[in-house]
């Protein structure tokens, strides 16, 4: 089957970039409109993927609408694949009256509803053929939406995991002593912003359940150094001297690879954490909560530990379980790496995306 696809996105991340490259290598006639300031923009061009510059500021970016419409007037596309809300809204406006199919992508649950005007500009728009969900939990969220007798067509949301490749994570693990962590310490890693759904405060609270003489240190990556609420909480912790704020780092995966465990105690709206996947790719066993896509990514006692949300004691218990059992820690880490290489590999994303394209074009 021959067809042409136009992907509209912002600053394409690595899995998204490799999806575009993989689709082109698989014979899909694909072109991409994206932000030229993206970290992987050059990778797309070097791989021979046709790229057009597009910077979208919001959902009502009329300059973006005109830019996309001009491209649609030049070429006929069978599918428009939109990877964020501004891309979906502008592409739907630009393609009005055209026969192309529209696919949107959703990486988190929440903030979509039948009473939300913005949702009708994006995922709930009648012209959207499919919503690609990053996890079954996000798909289930869409299927749960309702207003009176109004519900989403059950065929509309589909799950396609955002795949990775172990080959992307070959940088050697980082020496953690640069952060003031003593050699030989047991290190618990975290990466991300201190958003309400991430549960970072529960990690800090968990320290009071740990023995004071255990050489356990916490390493927090991300834009957290200016978070005064977090700093106050850390200052009140008995483990305050063992909590290290490393700031934003471009080598976060290699840092996670040097940790003994990586934790993300989300409390709600978790799709499929890239930070956890990157840690697993390095063989670092994860500790996650039974929220969102976490149980799809991590199998309890096989490729990591899954604990209840909002439970500092459970966090401390999981940390101590790995601290006291290095054999189990090693086993879980090996299985975590293997799980990314099999169940969450980019080749599966490419195959399933092609299958989706061909499915909607046959309808």
Structural class: alpha/beta
CATH C-level of the largest domain: Alpha Beta
**CATH-wise, what's the superfamily of the largest domain?**
Glycogen Phosphorylase B
Low-confidence stretches: none
- The span between the termini is 14 Å
| Tally of individual helices | 14
CATH architecture of the largest domain: 3-Layer(aba) Sandwich
As for the number of domains, it is 2
Please describe what this structure looks like.
The protein has 363 residues and is an alpha/beta fold. It has 2 domains: 4-163 and 345-362, Glycogen Phosphorylase B (Rossmann fold, 3-Layer(aba) Sandwich), CATH 3.40.50; 166-342, Glycogen Phosphorylase B (Rossmann fold). The chain is 37% helix and 18% strand. The protein contains 14 helices and 15 strands. The strands form 3 sheets. Strands 3-2-1-4-5-6-9 form a 7-stranded parallel beta sheet, sandwiched between helices. A 6-stranded parallel beta sheet has the order 12-11-10-13-14-15, sandwiched between helices. Helix 10 (274-281) crosses helix 13. It is elongated and about 70 Å long. The mean pLDDT is 95.
How does the SSE layout of this entry go?
Layout: E1 4-8, H1 14-25, E2 29-34, H2 41-46, E3 51-53, H3 62-74, E4 79-82, H4 85-94, E5 101-106, H5 117-120, E6 128-133, H6 136-144, E7 146-147, E8 150-151, E9 157-159, E10 186-191, H7 200-206, E11 216-221, H8 228-235, E12 243-247, H9 252-258, E13 261-264, H10 274-281, E14 286-289, H11 294-297, E15 305-307, H12 312-324, H13 326-342, H14 346-362
Parallel strand pairs: 1-2, 1-4, 2-3, 4-5, 5-6, 6-9, 10-11, 10-13, 11-12, 13-14, 14-15
Antiparallel strand pairs: 7-8
Helix pairs in contact: 1-14, 3-4, 7-12, 9-10, 10-13
């Amino acid at each position: 089957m021959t067809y042409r696809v136009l992907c509209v996105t912002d600053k394409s991340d690595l899995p998204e970039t490799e999806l575009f490259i993989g689709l082109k290598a698989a014979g899909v006639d694909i072109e991409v409109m994206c932000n030229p300031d993206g970290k992987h923009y050059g990778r797309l061009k070097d791989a021979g993927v046709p790229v057009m510059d597009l910077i979208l500021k919001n959902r009502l970016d009329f300059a973006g609408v005109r830019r996309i419409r001009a491209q649609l007037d030049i070429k006929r596309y069978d599918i428009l694949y939109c990877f964020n809300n501004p891309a979906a809204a502008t592409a739907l406006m630009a393609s009005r009256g055209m026969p192309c199919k529209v696919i949107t992508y959703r990486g988190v649950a929440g903030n979509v509803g039948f009473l939300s005007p913005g949702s009708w500009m994006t995922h709930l728009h009648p012209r959207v053929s499919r919503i690609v969900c990053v996890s079954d939990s996000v798909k289930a969220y869409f299927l749960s939406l309702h207003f009176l007798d109004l519900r989403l067509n059950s065929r509309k949301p589909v799950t396609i995991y955002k795949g990775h490749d172990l080959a992307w994570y070959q940088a050697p693990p980082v020496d953690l002593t640069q952060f003031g962590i003593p050699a030989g310490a047991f290190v618990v890693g975290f990466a991300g912003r201190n958003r309400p759904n991430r549960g970072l405060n529960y990690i800090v609270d968990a320290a009071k359940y740990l023995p004071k003489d255990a050489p356990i240190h916490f390493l927090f990556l991300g834009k957290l150094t200016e978070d005064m609420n977090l700093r106050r909480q850390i200052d009140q912790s008995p483990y305050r001297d063992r909590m290290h704020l490393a700031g934003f780092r471009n080598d976060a995966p290699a840092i996670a690879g040097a940790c003994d465990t990586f934790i993300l105690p989300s409390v709600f709206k978790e799709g499929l954490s890239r930070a956890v996947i990157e840690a697993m790719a390095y063989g670092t066993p994860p500790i996650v909560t039974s929220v969102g896509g976490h149980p799809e990514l991590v199998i309890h006692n096989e490729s990591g530990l899954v604990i209840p949300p909002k439970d500092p004691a459970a966090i401390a218990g999981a940390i101590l379980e790995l601290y006291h059992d290095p054999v189990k820690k090693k086993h879980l880490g090996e299985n975590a790496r293997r799980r990314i290489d099999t169940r969450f590999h980019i080749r599966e994303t490419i195959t399933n995306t092609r299958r989706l394209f061909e499915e909607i074009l046959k309808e």
